[in-house]
Sequence to fold (252 residues):
Amino acid sequence: MHLAIDFAWLEATMMAAVRITAFLMIAPPFSHGAIPARVKAMLGIGLSLAIGTAVAPGYESLDTAPFLGALVLQVITGALLGFLVLAVFSAVQAAGNLIDVFGGFQLAQAFDPQSMVNGAQFTRLFQLTAIVLLFASDGYQLIIAGLARSFTAVPVDGVLDIAGPAELLTDVVGQLLLASVQIAGPLVIVLFLADVGLGLVTRVAPALNAFALGFPLKIALTLVLAGVVFVTLPGIVAALSGEALGLMRGVR
Fold:
């Protein structure tokens, strides 16, 4: 019995699997600790088999040293794409962290080993909600589609231009800070004004001990206004998915 093996297709598919697996290990929602690493590896191999026929045409088999170098390049490319997606969706987590700081919930900070997040209630709530919305709204399919298009921009036997990704990383950090302030900004302003008002009341009537009364007031304000922000999260996650897709397209 004779089995014909196309080694060029096998090498191209293997390098695609390396890039996809590195991406899945870092990019949300696949990077969550509740998804075992074995499942991520199997998903990476399955996706690479699905796009193997698209990356194999025109690929020529490499010698051992160039092949190992190409594998390292695929790991770097996949990790870079995953970090871009992670940075975009970290805006939701950063917004939750701002709410925790200004709402007085930061004292209850704890580390979540599954999501690798160190924050208080709203930080973890917003991060988990973003992951759920990515699965519920099929946003993860948009992210996978962007990953598949990256093989057109940077083929498995191509060379990654460092200047483009470096500029993208600089831009995405600024967008992360801007997006987090845009999400939680109104709530942060209201809580700051509440602190200012309590300070003025204390100056006018020191015996009133307005700050002792301010804790339940700030908690109530935070819960009410955070509920309003929470309702807007589906639209925010949809916009961030589109932004992540645009950033992955910008990698050359």
In short: Strands lie at 110-112, 117-119. The chain has one domain: 7-249.
